[in-house]
Amino acid sequence: MDICEASGLTNDHVDRHPWELARIKVVRDLLLPLCKAGSKINILDMGCGDVYVAQQLSGFFPDATFHCVDSAFTTEIKVRLMDRVKGFPITLFSSLEELKSKSTIQQVDIVLLLDVIEHIEDDCAFMRYLGL
Predict the structure, then answer these.
(1) Mean pLDDT across 98-126
(2) How does the average pLDDT of the chain come out, rounded?
(3) 34 contacts 63 by C-beta, under 8 angstroms
(4) CA-CA to 39 of 20 to 30 Å: which in 5, 63, 88, 93?
């Protein structure tokens, strides 16, 4: 869910749109062949919104670490979301630059751009910016 649509960031029970629920299954199925059991992988979730996708996927892929980036994160929003994902292999960042400066990851194995790329004016430049 986009941060601007989220009303209860501390509430674990939020009525989810059927598309959000279906998307979890679709993304999980796409990731299954890439996330072998025991493989430590880093997943970058750009435009992660309220971190629901990463939180749900972390249950299916316990060896994955999710690095969630959303430009709409304020300090207050990050604090509330960090409380909600405590104990999950999830880190939160307001920008890719913040992730690069504060994280010790050496590489990202998978990039999720769910409901993001269609909002980017120059999608090719954005992909180059991500290093893809």
Answers:
(1) 90
(2) 87
(3) no
(4) 93
| Residues 29-43 pLDDT 10s | 999 999 887 789 999
- Residues ≥6 apart with Cβ < 8 Å to 45: 51, 53, 54, 66, 67, 68, 69, 112, 114
**Residues near 80 by Cβ (< 8 Å), separated by ≥ 6?**
9, 10
Amino acid (one-letter) located at 56: Q
CA distances to 18, 35, 64, 99, 105 from 38, rounded to whole Å, are 31, 8, 9, 24, 18
* Alpha carbon distance, N-terminus to C-terminus of the chain: 25
Q: Average pLDDT in the 103-125 region?
A: 90
pLDDT at 10 (0 to 100): 46
